Amino acid sequence: MKYMLLVYSPENSWTPDEWNSCLQESVALCHELAALGQFHGASPLHPVATAHCVRLRDGQRLVTAGPFAETTEQLGGYYIVDVPNLDDAIAIACRIPAVKKGTVEIRPLFPLDGLPAEKPGPASGDLRQFLLICYDDEEYWTAVGPDVHLAAMREAAEVTRDLDSRGRYLSASPLRPVSTATSVRLRDGRRIVTDGPFAETREILGGYYLILAQHPGEAVDLAARHPGTRVGTVEVRQVYTLTDLPESNP
Amino acid sequence: MSLAERIDEIYRAESRRVLATLIRLLGDFDLAEEALHEAFVAAAEKWPLEGVPANPRAWLVSTGRFKAIDALRRRGRFEEVKAELVNRHVEVTAANAARADDEIADDRLRLIFTCCHPAIDPNVQIALTLREVCGLKTEEIASAFLTSSSTMAQRIVRGKAKIRDAGIPFVIPSAEDMRYRLDSVLMVIYLVFNEGYSASSGKAVTRSDLSGEAIRLGRLVVELLSDPEAIGLLALMLLQESRRASRTTPEGDLVLLEEQDRSRWNQGQIQEGVALVHRALSTRRFGAYSLQAAIAAVHATTSEASATDWGQIVALYDALLSVHPSPVVELNRAVGVAMRDGPAAGLQLIDDIVDRGELADYHLIYAARADLFRRLGNVVEARRAYVLALAKARQEPERRFLRARIAELERAAN
């Protein structure tokens, strides 16, 4: 089963030294996961101050600076792993350095047909990586029914195929509903595992795209093509490209 | 015994174990429940003709599994899940007949760990455990927890969906994870027990059944997994349960420990509880449940309230505070100190807790203060504290008790 591990921590609580050793530990963890055939990507994100949010309302594109939600802990990175069950995902979450001061939210990916194959690692040249974080109005999609929801997911899959044909696609997936979320913290060596997402918000994290763009403006343009922007929000975050990460397992 | 009675008996004795195994084999709660039902329908049809098989449990498991595969075939889902089912089947048949019994016992433990997984909401953990492990009906669980059947049914559906969609495994945790996972199992069992023991509203019969279920679960965990804290929890529940008959009047009013008729305490439960306390403490790996059980054992083995060894009780509270610091434990210790050294010493300790701003909404801290003032003969302060306790207390028997104490003080003052 594939899981996305979303790493939240107070962004300004890291000293440069802590941040560097956190990166080293994370890269080592990624290599270990890759050796087990469990690794499907991971990256730290640029600070929330650089985030943009994209919404489409009545045909108008609304772009705002800043993250989707102002929280005391911010989304600072993610991992995607393929492991047999939730216990294995929790064990990995407990080894992510930020779990000691923040929270790791574990979300199973929703297996959607018709997505292009994941593209390996960072591209060369002048393209930068961006994570598009899709916040959905789950109530809306429940209200309109599964057929409309599935049609929107198919539209999203089409967007990914188009991005792929233009060399802008790395990976993407919807997540299972927020009711399947689990949050993990580690305090004084004690594991604290709880039901539910990191933060209860009306729009909830429902999927992601990892894309390539020349600049944030282009990333925002591409984000606006996600069907969920018509009722929800897409947060655009640039990704730090680490050159020493392993390749994603096939 | 007629065959129908024999089948009923086998149902009572084996259905939960068969279900646990079917859940493991099929990886799906709803499918397993359906398969269990079908297996018993098949038993009612076949056993009158063929006789009861030598190992009815194994017969039911294998029949249930075939019925489930039939059901999947009918729904056209068989191809999707075939590979997984075959793997699980190979895994099971690889075990020889002698091990099969252990495996099935293990399956119940697996099921407890799955239902009490910390990634499931605690309220849902309780509902799932009572439904899937204990086999209580949804309506029974709902009435015991004073909620509607539809709320309880929703919780159970939510729990099953989380297990399925988030990939919560049906396994006994690794040694590394055991401590934190077992903590959550023991907490669910103790919550179920307390719901049946301390709350006196609702249908009394159903609620004492909950304590019985909790003790049964506690025994099962101890039987399958000889952990000191699991033993301590079982001891604690038995020792508390031993006082059930004497802790309320026939009218449902509370009787304090020191005023209870100790001849009505259940000696069988006390003996078993005390033996378990010794077993838990002798491991030297005991924790908070074992220490609370040890405190309960001191009371349980004292024939008159006035003979209570308060020195030992305070020492046990000291040990409990060191493994599990909490203001409630401090409050209980303060009461012990008051009994050992006099009310003034206890009041001082309670005031320290109050001064730190802790337990401000906890009715028992005011009730304890009131009682100590009453013992000191300070009627005014005692009454004031009882009134505060009454304002915070929510359970009707406790409220009646507090009102009676206030009335008593007012009579004494006049």
Question: What do you see in this structure?
Answer:
The complex is a heterodimer of chains A (250) and B (414). Chain A is an alpha+beta fold. Chain A has one domain (2-238): Alpha-Beta Plaits. Chain A has helices at residues 16-35, 86-93, 138-144, 146-165, 216-223; strands at residues 2-9, 39-44, 52-57, 60-65, 74-82, 103-108, 128-136, 169-174, 182-187, 190-195, 204-213, 233-238. In chain A, a hairpin with a 2-residue loop joins strand 9 (182-187) and strand 10 (190-195). In chain A, 43% of the residues are buried. The mean pLDDT of chain A is 92. Chain B has 414 residues and is an all-alpha fold. Among the domains of chain B are: 1-94; 99-225, no CATH class; 361-414, no CATH class. Chain B is 75% helix and 0% strand. Chain B contains 19 helices and no strands. In chain B, helix 14 (310-323) packs antiparallel against helix 15. The N and C termini of chain B lie far apart (69 Å). At the A-B interface, helix 2 and strand 10 of A face helix 8 of B.
Defining traits:
heterodimer, A: 250 residues, alpha+beta, Alpha-Beta Plaits, six-stranded antiparallel beta sheet, 5 helices, 12 strands, B: 414 residues, mainly alpha, 19 helices, 75% helix, 0% strand
Helix and strand run of chain A: EHEEEEHEEHHEEEEHE
Class from helix and strand fractions of chain A: alpha+beta
Largest sheet of chain B: none
Largest interface: A-B, 23 and 19 residues
> How would you state the average pLDDT of chain B, rounded?
88
Number of domains of chain A: 1
Question: What is the tally of helical segments of chain A?
Answer: 5
